[in-house]
């Protein structure tokens, strides 16, 4: 007996500054679920690097996610935040999955083909728009876990994109003395500044500021911001870099003040659990914690645009041009 075939549409990055929606017929493997997508979230930081061609072409997209385990040569599929309902399955999968609402780390497409162990069943109280922001919440949680803020710390967050604001949401829940978000876009400062216990300022307001922060986060995607973040750290301060710059270079002033003040700079990346937590935390435990946080954080305030799948080329073009009114962009599907 032949495998079931499925017609679907999917987002494909054809080349630098070129994205399209392709129609294709795919086979459903015996161990796969068929999920009709309701919403998917664009991760503006990473996906814009792919869109612009600013990632190393031989680099693997993400070896920890099966559907992204390939290099970044065009044409390619990318994206990892889809939510929908199970509408079918391969011969080896029980029909009891049908009707379940699930999340999957899957590129943007009208239908996601994934094995049961690659999905996250969703609680009834979470809708699709909240749930498709799960990867961003997990990233923010991983960044905060990497940083280990101390009680009473003063914290600077560079970047008020989705990850920057979500990280600030988590920091605002902690007993810190000060959380300041730095971003040049007024619209994004407004999103961050609306959080209780968080101040938001323009980078120019910090140009001549004395080093007073114990901890800094560079989440803007702008290498120049990293240098300013380092300059604001006090003695023995630490900067955690959650941005991925792709092929962009960071030019840093690592002169006398940096050297004598024992300032540390280190990376944070969500694909692994921080070394100091691996005895007690697993990726599954962290994902469970992120899923719980999705239902607690005010994520709806970050959603600025809902765009039909067929209009996705315009969405990426606007994001790449720096439309600061676009914060969290969701793709909508008529399946």
Number of strands: 15
Low-confidence stretches: none
Mean pLDDT: 93
The overall number of domains is 2
- Name given to the CATH homologous superfamily of the largest domain: Medium-chain alcohol dehydrogenases, catalytic domain
CATH-defined fold name of the largest domain: Quinone Oxidoreductase, Chain A, domain 1
Radius of gyration: 20 Å
CATH architecture designation of the largest domain: Alpha-Beta Complex
The biggest beta sheet, please? 7 strands, mixed
Structural class computed from helices and strand pairing:
alpha/beta
Give the helix proportion (percent range).
10-25%
Terminal CA distance:
27 Å
The helix tally amounts to: 9
Strand and helix order: EEEHEEEEHHEHEHEEHEHEHEHE
CATH class of the largest domain: Alpha Beta
Beta-strand percentage?
25-35%
Overall 3D geometry? globular
Question: What does this entry show, briefly?
Answer:
With 335 residues, the chain is an alpha/beta fold.
Describe this structure in words.
With 335 residues, the chain is of the alpha/beta class. It contains 9 helices and 15 strands. The chain has helices at residues 44-52, 128-131, 134-147, 162-172, 186-193, 223-231, 256-260, 283-294, 312-320, and strands at 5-15, 18-27, 33-41, 82-89, 101-104, 111-114, 119-121, 154-158, 178-182, 199-201, 213-218, 233-241, 264-267, 303-308, 328-332. Helix 3 (134-147) crosses helix 4 and helix 3 packs across helix 8 (283-294). The mean pLDDT is 93.
